[in-house]
Amino acid sequence: MTDVRHRLYLDPTEPEETALPSGDVTEGVVRVGATVRRPAQPQSFAVAAFLDHLASAGFEGSPRFLGRDAKGRDVLTYLEGRCAGPVPELWAQDEDLLVSVGRMVRRLHDAAEGYDPSVEPFPPRPVRQDPAELVCHLDVTPQNVVVCGGTAVGLVDFDLAGPSTRLKDSYNTAMHWVPLRDPADLWPGWEAVDQARRLRIFADAYGWETEERRRLPDFGAEAAVLSWERMKHNAEVHGGGWARMWAEGVGGVILRRRNWLQENRRTLVDALLA
After folding, report:
1. Mapped to the 3 state alphabet, what secondary structure does the chain carry?
2. Measuring CA to CA, how many Å separate 26 from each of 159, 160, 196, 213?
3. How far is CA 34 from the centre of its chain?
């Protein structure tokens, strides 16, 4: 297999391009036949090398990097299935789906063990670095999980991947899927979800240890502070989708999450340890 920096993907034909939903900060993503084309990013080759490792480790839930096309775009395999929208549909509340998400993230982390990111270093993160335990996805939102038959089968959009910890990535996943946020910020149709119950379901599916469960609300509150700092930095420095999200009030959502986790610490720990 060629080095990721010299891997080219040449189309035998000129197939039709179909626009795919844009992410929060990445636009111009299209489907071309059985492939996805994405604008190249500073972290593209680091992600590509990581995807190569996941393929060699037998993880089937990530796309494969095929190279760069004639337009300089990253070319990846298309994963069949459906993803939730920016306001996740009610089907995303299914508890069996939540279990499958937790188990898939655990398989991802197990497959990532032993990968050396110095082969293709990830760009340093702004503000503060996470501890570097292993390379993680770090953006396992409902929009980035591919679902087939009510089960999570794949992950897309590795733009935020990089060195972090199992707990950080799995907590971040729970934050989006439970979801862990102030009830005032829940999506329409999600107001009645039992957040403590869903957190316990995810924790069991992923396999959090007892000590991780005990400190999870405090860990989440600390993570919210770092998230706020990074979002503010990205909005001011990079603009684009980051600035749009900041202007729409994501900073307030993050701070309300921190407060909600602290105020409900006992309830959440009791549910996790019951």
Report:
1. CCCHHHCECCCCCCCCEEECCCCCCCCCCEEECCEEEECCCCCHHHHHHHHHHHHHCCCCCCCCEEEECCCCCEEEECCCCECCCCCCCHHHHCHHHHHHHHHHHHHHHHHHCCCCHHHCCCCCCCCCCCCCCEEECCCCCHHHEEEECCEEEEECCCCCCEEECHHHHHHHHHHHHCCCCCHHHCCCCCCCCCHHHHHHHHHHHHCCCHHHHHCHHHHHHHHHHHHHHHHHHHHHHCCHHHHHHHHCCHHHHHHHHHHHHHHCHHHHHHHHHC
2. 9, 11, 32, 34
3. 22
Structure tokens at 258: 């921190």
- Residues 151-169 as b/e (b if ≥16 CB within 10 A, e otherwise) read bbbbbbbbbbbbbbebbbb
Are the beta carbons of 196 and 204 closer than 8 angstroms? Answer: no
pLDDT digits (tens, 9 = 90+) for 117-170: 998 999 987 778 888 999 999 999 999 999 999 999 999 999 999 999 999 999
Q: How far is CA 54 from the centre of its chain?
A: 16
Residue of 38, 169, 141 whose CA lies nearest to 83: 141
**Tokens, residue 245:** 């999200």
pLDDT tens for 31-67 read 999 999 999 999 999 999 999 999 999 999 999 999 9
* Residue 95 CB coordination number (10 Å): 13
What is the residue whose two structure tokens read 């994405």? 38
The answer to whether 72 touches 56, Cβ cutoff 8 Å, is: no
Q: How far apart are CA 55 and CA 41, in angstroms?
A: 21
Structure tokens that stand for 18 in this block: 């179909």
Single pTM value for the model = 0.92
